[in-house]
Design brief:
alpha+beta; two-stranded antiparallel ribbon
Length: 171
Amino acid sequence: NHTMDAGREGVISTRKIARELGCMAFGAGLNEVEASEPVYLQEAGGITKLYHATVFGTPEADEGIIDAPIRRRPLPSLLRYISPEGKPSATEFWVQQRRKDAGLLSLRPITGRTHQLRLHCSHKGFPILGDPQYGSEESQTLSMRLGYTHQRLCAKSVTFIHPITEEKLTI
């Protein structure tokens, strides 16, 4: 299963546990990987997700990989931060459009950490517009001026191997 953070929009897929279906979990045997491990499946290439994000500013490079480990803040906070002691986290990006103060990026999480895309963009200096937790003062000011009341992060597609037919599906 996949949960969508509040304030995000786009496609979302759901699944039943492979044991209930009596079949393979996204093309991997149950002895190799449990169906309840979507992060592992994503890292192993079993699930590919693509997002679009409107960001404050843009990266200098037209494409690249953001590799920055993510760690959870102490409870009761639900927020994360970039830390050498965090879990390995990587995001691939492509600049789709550049404007004066903002840009449109395609983002593909290589790993599947909570708040990964938001943290990685903010960490590299181009926070997602409308993000109240990880946005900069400047990005929040622009978001307010543009009337953005939620994060400008949209799940565009999810690609995976069908657990029964073994066909590659894109939603």
